[in-house]
Amino acid sequence: MNPANSSPCWWNRLGWGVAVMLLLVEGGKLIWLERAGPAPVAYDAAGYWQLGTQVARGDVWMTADAIGYRTPGYPWLIGVCQWLCGSSAWRAISILQHLCLFITTGLTAWWTWRLTSRVWLVNLALLIRVLSLGSASYAETLLTETVYLPVLTLTMILLTTSRDVINWRTWCGICGLWSLSFLIRPSSVALLPVLVLALALPSWSTGFSRIAVRRLASRLAVGGVIAAVMIGPWCVRNALIFGRPTPVIFLGRELWISILGPGRPIAPSLPDSPDMERIRELTATSQLEIQWENNWSVSHALTDAGLTDAQADDLQQKVAWQALWRDPLRAVLRMSWKAVDFWRVVYDREQALYGDKFTPETTLKGQSMWGQVQQRERRTQWLSMAPEHQLLVMELGSLLGLMGTLGLCLSPRHWSAGLVCMTTLVMFCGITAVLDAPSYRYRMILEPLLITGGCAGFAIWRQVMGIGTKNLWNSVDLPQNVCND
């Protein structure tokens, strides 16, 4: 061993030992939460379980009581678990989702290492994941976010750690992962500009030559083919059932909650229009109690009146657009306020665990339960102290994560990764502000990015404050400390 490098090697070995210990602690935390028992199956979770049941019975395309506002990735996963595991499917899904969260923690550490090559920054990222309880509690609930997390994180790693032009193998992997993520959560449409940006940045920095433009076009074409192969069959399904060849039918409901739902400033009144009058006529005889600010309440009333899922969505979309054009300034202010709230929204245990109160309606028939009441009560007490439950923690965490990610843009080595990450954050925030109401579970899918960006950007900001941005770009990258045994 080189004596000059003995101290860094010892320090690095200690760092990796701490990293292994933190991973073990994270694993123990997730095992403890999983053993405490599941969350009740209600609302969205109940809907996903029902779709999975259709898949397990052989209705792979979910044509019985067909709906268009879900993509099939998560129901297929639930259906496969039901088919393979029978009465233990609920437990199998719970274990799988906790494993997904553990994989996400490992990917976050790996991503931080790829960007920084500093083990103690890796430990900082791991420590934040260990202390985080909000996303961990969602692993107990039948919702898409936990399964979505490792897919999105791995996609971002591939997009941001290529040192040069993204090669064909990596690009095909990225497109496959993006298509999979879209089948799990349609909000992945926010990544489309990010994919194009990641491809174009190397050419932009060196000049768009004819070869570079041809390479960009060919990669986009291949990406389109991969997406068509993976998502296209679901579009065909929607075209045959609803006459709409789109992968998901939800815009009307989302615009309704965005424009007419709760929020600040207060929503405009419902428009006086033939379309709104038709909604009132259709829902007049409904047995369901209608809350006009609740998009799903209106949607369920319309489908209960005999409209198909797509017809109800179309009608809500028309009324929402009419309300927007009648008062566009109010709509813009509401969306702007939601964009700010997206970074301030706090974790709510009641939403994550549906109150943790089991009833015959929220306990799956034929499925084995696990965990004791005492364990669930201790879990609930622990989650009540989640750092993400504090507004100040969420505000500071978002601010530091955004500043760190912005700091990556100042680095001569990582400026392209910084731009890709910042665009991702802006796009997911924007699509939530325009089409939905902010919720912690919509923001938590960006936590690995915020943690990695914050940790990696911290090192860049130290260099900038020490030598200045100009000197940083003029300096030659120093070699990393290497242990030569």
Task: Walk me through what this model shows.
This protein starts with 5 loop residues before the first helix and ends in an 11-residue tail after the last helix. It is built from 22 helices and no strands. It has two domains: 3-249 and 342-474, no CATH class; 255-332, no CATH class. Helix 4 packs parallel to helix 7 (145-160), helix 13 packs across helix 14 (309-326) and helix 18 packs across helix 21 (447-467). It is 68% helix and 0% strand. It has 485 residues and is mainly alpha-helical.
Write the layout of secondary structure elements.
Elements: H1 6-35, H2 44-56, H3 73-85, H4 89-116, H5 119-131, H6 134-138, H7 145-160, H8 168-184, H9 192-206, H10 210-242, H11 251-260, H12 274-283, H13 295-304, H14 309-326, H15 328-341, H16 349-353, H17 373-383, H18 391-408, H19 415-435, H20 440-443, H21 447-467, H22 469-474
Helix pairs in contact: 1-4, 1-5, 2-3, 3-4, 4-5, 4-7, 4-21, 5-21, 7-8, 8-10, 9-10, 9-19, 11-14, 13-14, 14-15, 15-19, 18-19, 18-21
Task: Please tag this protein with its features.
22 helices, mainly alpha, disordered N terminus, 485 residues
Report helical residue fraction: 55-70%
Poorly predicted sequence stretches spanning 5 or more consecutive residues: 1-6, 476-485
Number of helices: 22
Strand content: under 5%
Return the string of H and E elements.
Answer: HHHHHHHHHHHHHHHHHHHHHH
DSSP strand count: 0
Q: How many structural domains can be distinguished in the coordinates? A: 2
Q: Average pLDDT, to the nearest integer?
A: 90
Tell me the span between the first and last alpha carbons. Answer: 5 Å
Shape: globular
Reported for the largest beta sheet, the result is: none
Our Rg estimate from Cα atoms comes to: 24 Å
